[in-house]
Amino acid sequence: MQSVSTKPYLIRAIHEWCSDHGFTPYLVVAVRGKMQVPMEYVKNGEIVLNISYNATRSLTLGNDYITFSARFNGVSREIAIPVGAVVSIFSRENGEGMGFEYEGVPDELVDNAPVAADEPSAAASDKGPDDEPPRPSGRPQLRVVK
């Protein structure tokens, strides 16, 4: 019998703990191959994402995927992250959280990732990982935090 991973349950628990205490939950995701994330924000093969309820829309912390909509540089993007690619979840305010082993992402999960029909693929971006898009002022936005 195959054991069920505790990782998605721990991610949900830390997210709930952050939200209950007014902290901002952030995910660190290892980006390998085709993933539905904004590639222009990937640094050193990782992306850091604010997954608070205020920064996301339709957040789903599932057992196989974490999916949500968020605005990047004023443009709404659909994000789908395999849970196996999550490296850590932590509170921005105090750094408390939990790190995980990169579990790899099976090809069938990447190939069957939920995709929004009206959103362009993040992998189709022609910007390099070191290009920082200009930030318009006046509206709150997600920031990449190191």
The Rg value, from CA coordinates, equals 15 Å
Read across the widest sheet, the strand sequence of neighbours is 2-1-6-7
- Do you know the CATH architecture of the domain at 7-102? Roll
What structural class is derived from the secondary structure elements? alpha+beta
- Along the chain, the helix and strand elements come as HEEEEEEEH
Principal-axis shape:
globular
User: How many H/I helical runs?
Assistant: 2
Q: CATH superfamily name of the domain at 7-102?
A: SspB-like
Largest sheet: 4 strands, antiparallel
- What is the arithmetic mean of pLDDT? 80
CA-CA gap between termini: 39 Å
Percentage of residues in helical conformation? 10-25%
Low-confidence stretches: 115-137
CATH domain class name of the domain at 7-102: Mainly Beta
- SS elements, strand count: 7
Fill in the CATH topology of the domain at 7-102. Answer: SH3 type barrels
Name the assembly state.
single chain
How large a portion of the residues is in β-strands, by DSSP E? 25-35%
